[in-house]
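Retro notes (design track)

What went well: tokenization of the new backbones is finally stable.
What didn't: we kept losing track of which sequence belonged to which structure.
Fix going forward: every design gets posted as structure first, then sequence, in one message. First example under the new rule, 931 residues:
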């Protein structure tokens, strides 16, 4: 549970003052962490204090001699500063000097243990004066709230004696009624110099200011601490809206005179940028190359970058491995190579050490090979003439060497200026370099997998890549750009190979998942690609600068299958829900892969879908059987799913273009589509055809028939014209050479007519078959949509073009409709009664009506879902009646019990438990009568 504030103080002078402050805040409705109230007896007080600081929005420090010279209060202040908490200093009796005295061994040990446990530099603090100086250093320029008191030694002794008698009453202050009682108010010790109430109002004003920023600070740090405590597991990172909200919070700008109430800690920054990296397929924005001697400067640069929300990767270089034996150099080299390829920018921390370091020079060569943008940061003075050629050619540096001054404040300002310059370079042309990285990563993967076609770019992504390649090639010819900015030969080869495969590749599987399950999703994507399956995976398929939501929709629409990774995180994600609903609206085949067990399936999933269970397996070992099952599922009706995706896209394109006839199917393509639709409906294939697909294919058939009718009219007009021409020819046969010439022309036209007539005779049968197919298919579609009157009209027209076997088929369909129509009225009357009973929660009666409606034989699909739901309600009702019967028997109300159990048996006549209970009722009834 979060608290509004944590109070840190020294008991000797401040216990009474803090007691008054705690009571005042409690009465105003604030939740405050106060050690006397919040540390239960027998608990580890140091852990309780740490947790109290972590969960508090503000850190109140009572400035008094004991607090400012106590190593334990210093530890609390150090931890609050480490977490970036807002510190509110309250001046009770501040001091700036003290009589020096060495710390005890126990006090010094506590400080050392704290610094080491938190990965901090162990400071040389050996005396009370050292503690005081460090406390003021940590307070910095934070303004104090003045609530000063004058305390004599007698006042302090009175406070000490009072607290001995009050010790067992502190924890009752959690009870508001106890605190409200004036008899329980904390007495005032000493004399107030400043008005306590005025000071208290100023404290409230600080606590209330910028609460939204402060609350989010606390929320993120608590999640970050959990992530760190669990060895930084990726499933604990931020995802979706939470991640975006945290990124916006981290990079929020405050315009002067406004100031942030507190600053994000390094842990905040690491947690948020690692979440961002996890969302970006583990890729980063900056690779930092440095020698071990410049570790301090590099860490400072890293912390500055991540506080700006920039993702950073540091190599596992000689800092970690200089004492390792048996280090595998080949694996190290490949890992570093991949890290550089997966970064937008390469930052080289230059010094004499890094200029001579073999690891650094190898990393630089990789960056040059990959045409990375290289940014040089000069950490220490170097002799430029002694630098390797690769470094000498890099003309401009960001110079940190001019920051070394005796004035630490000026040093920090200079560094911030240099850091801002570095960030500006990283953000310049951001989308171009991000795509440079993404396409390079995919191209390297394609090359490593022996030019696996499954990794090639397709559709919209390929169009984006072509635009990017053109932009990069223009830069090659620009006088302002260098070779480092341009695409590599591998980029070009990869994109050109993708272009040659246009029309032969489509996305077979769209992978939908929660970013919490990102590791498993990446593994599954990799395995599918290795097995030759083309995937649509957001971390690979969304170019920089694109509309994320639109790209996701396009990805679903262009993929043959929709694979959903099932876990508690994914079913609670609104993004995943939207993806599933869009896939269902597109009629996609849904494949469920269970990664983690879920308590209940969401309502939006169709009930017939079964999952493939990966939840019990180690990703690296025992997954073969489940993965083979997934591949078998993808292979099932593969041609059908591919055509489903194809016709869905064409239908959407037709619909988007205002149903323009130019986008309709013609010729062989139309014949294939008709056959596919017929097979789909005949065999109830999954995925089923969508309404827009049916409309699109039927409209294509109608358009084709219209064109054929136009052709027939043209032939008819030609025939009439030629007949008239023959008559004219006979009437004018004596007109000599002119008539002879006209005769020749007419003979030619007559021959053309004969050819046209022969062609018409040859195509008559085919036309007749197409017309039958058109009207028959239309009638079938209307019949399935329960538009019976329209269906009968089209069946009747179809009879005009039917042969003997087709006539039988049509007559059977008409008879079936004539049988169904009388059932329709009865069916809907029963459904209406069922709905009315359901509304008043009479579930048993509702079930009975829906069951009767189902037995009518009109349309079972319309009541199937209702029956499934009501069956559960009926079971509950039966159990309720069973319990009621037992209760009535215990009260010797046998007749009522018999009536209840008889009613229950009407709905479950073969239920053995009900039958045995009926026997029990009968026996008790007979026993009662005999008595």
């Amino acid at each position: 549970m979060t608290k509004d504030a944590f109070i840190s103080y020294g008991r000797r002078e401040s216990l009474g003052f803090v007691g008054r402050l705690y009571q005042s805040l409690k009465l105003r409705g604030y939740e405050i962490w106060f050690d006397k109230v919040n540390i239960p007896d027998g608990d580890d007080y140091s852990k309780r204090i740490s947790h109290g600081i972590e969960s508090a929005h503000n850190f109140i420090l009572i400035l008094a001699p004991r607090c400012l010279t106590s190593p334990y209060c210093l530890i609390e202040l150090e931890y609050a500063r480490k977490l970036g908490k807002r510190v509110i200093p309250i001046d009770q009796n501040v001091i700036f000097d003290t009589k020096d005295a060495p710390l005890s061994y126990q006090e010094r040990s506590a400080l050392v243990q704290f610094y080491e446990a938190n990965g901090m530099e162990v400071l040389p603090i050996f005396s009370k004066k050292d503690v005081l100086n460090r406390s003021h250093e940590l307070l910095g320029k934070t303004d104090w709230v003045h609530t000063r008191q004058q305390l004599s030694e007698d006042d302090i002794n009175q406070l000490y004696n009072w607290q001995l008698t009050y010790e067992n009453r502190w924890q009752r202050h959690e009870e508001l009624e106890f605190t409200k009682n004036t008899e329980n108010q904390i007495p005032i010790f000493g004399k107030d110099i400043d008005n306590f109430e005025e000071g208290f109002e100023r404290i409230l004003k600080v606590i209330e200011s910028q609460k939204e920023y402060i609350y989010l600070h606390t929320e993120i740090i608590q999640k970050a601490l959990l992530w760190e405590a669990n060895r930084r597991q990726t499933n604990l990172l931020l995802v979706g809206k939470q991640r975006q909200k945290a990124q916006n919070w981290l990079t929020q700008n405050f315009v002067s005179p406004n100031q942030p109430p507190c600053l994000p800690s390094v842990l905040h920054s690491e947690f948020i940028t690692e979440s961002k990296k996890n969302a970006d397929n583990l890729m980063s924005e900056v690779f930092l190359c440095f020698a071990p001697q410049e570790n301090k400067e590099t860490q400072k640069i890293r912390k500055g970058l991540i506080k700006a929300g920039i993702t950073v990767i540091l190599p596992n270089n000689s800092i970690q491995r200089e004492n390792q034996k048996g280090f595998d150099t080949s694996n190290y080299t490949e890992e570093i190579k991949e890290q550089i390829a997966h970064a937008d920018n390469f930052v080289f921390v230059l010094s004499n050490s890094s200029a001579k370091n073999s690891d650094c020079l190898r990393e630089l060569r990789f960056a040059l090979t990959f045409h990375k943008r290289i940014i040089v940061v000069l950490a220490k003075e170097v002799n430029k003439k002694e630098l390797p050629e690769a470094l000498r050619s890099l003309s401009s540096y960001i110079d940190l060497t001019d920051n070394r001054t005796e004035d630490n404040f000026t040093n920090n300002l200079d560094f911030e200026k240099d850091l801002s310059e570095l960030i500006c370079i990283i953000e310049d042309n951001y989308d171009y370099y991000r795509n440079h990285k993404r396409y390079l990563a995919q191209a390297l993967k394609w090359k490593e997998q022996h030019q696996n076609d499954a990794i090639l770019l397709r559709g919209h992504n390929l169009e984006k890549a072509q635009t990017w390649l053109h932009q990069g090639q223009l830069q090659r010819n620009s006088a302002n750009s260098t070779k480092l900015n341009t695409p590599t030969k591998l980029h070009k080869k990869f994109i050109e190979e993708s272009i040659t495969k246009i029309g032969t590749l489509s996305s077979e599987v769209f992978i939908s998942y929660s970013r919490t399950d990102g590791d498993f999703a990446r593994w599954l994507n990799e395995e599918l690609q290795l097995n030759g399956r083309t995937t649509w995976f957001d971390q690979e398929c969304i170019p920089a600068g694109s509309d994320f939501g639109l790209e996701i929709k396009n990805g679903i629409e262009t993929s043959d299958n929709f694979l959903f990774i099932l876990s508690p995180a994914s079913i609670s994600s609104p993004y995943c829900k939207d993806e599933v609903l869009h896939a269902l609206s597109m009629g996609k085949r849904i494949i469920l892969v269970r990664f983690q067990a879920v308590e209940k399936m969401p309502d939006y999933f169709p009930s017939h879908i079964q999952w493939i269970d990966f939840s019990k397996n180690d990703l690296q070992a025992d997954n073969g059987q489940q993965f083979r099952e997934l591949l078998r599922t993808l292979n099932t009706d593969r041609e059908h799913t591919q055509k489903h995706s194809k016709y869905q896209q064409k239908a959407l394109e037709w619909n988007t273009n205002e149903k323009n006839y130019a986008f309709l199917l013609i010729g062989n393509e139309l014949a294939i589509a008709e056959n596919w639709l017929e097979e789909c409906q005949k065999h109830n294939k999954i995925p089923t055809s969508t309404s827009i697909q049916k409309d699109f294919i039927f409209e294509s058939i109608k358009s084709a028939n219209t064109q054929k009718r136009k052709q027939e009219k043209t032939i008819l007009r030609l025939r009439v014209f030629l007949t008239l021409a023959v008559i004219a020819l006979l009437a004018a046969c004596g007109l000599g050479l002119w008539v002879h010439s006209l005769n020749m022309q007419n003979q030619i036209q007559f021959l053309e007519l004969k050819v046209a007539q022969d062609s018409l005779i040859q195509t008559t049968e085919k036309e007749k078959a197409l017309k039958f197919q058109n009207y028959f298919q239309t009638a079938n579609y209307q019949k399935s949509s329960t538009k019976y009157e329209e269906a009968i009209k089209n069946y009747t027209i179809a009879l005009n073009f039917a042969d003997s076997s087709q006539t039988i088929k049509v007559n059977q369909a008409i008879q079936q409709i004539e049988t169904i129509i009388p059932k329709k009225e009865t069916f809907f009357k029963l459904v209406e009664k069922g709905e009315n009973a359901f509304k008043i929660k009479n579930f048993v009666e509702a079930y009975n009506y829906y069951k009767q409606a189902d037995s009518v034989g009109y349309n079972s699909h319309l009541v199937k879902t209702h029956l499934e739901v009501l069956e559960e309600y009926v079971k509950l009702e039966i159990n309720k009646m069973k319990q009621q019967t037992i209760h009535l028997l215990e009260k010797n109300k046998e007749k009522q019990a018999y009536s209840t159990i008889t009613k229950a048996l009407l709905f479950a006549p073969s239920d053995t438990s009900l039958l045995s209970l009926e026997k029990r009722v009968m026996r008790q009834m007979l026993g009662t009568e005999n008595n």
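Added context from the reviewer: The domain at 824-930 is CATH 1.25.40 (Serine Threonine Protein Phosphatase 5, Tetratricopeptide repeat).
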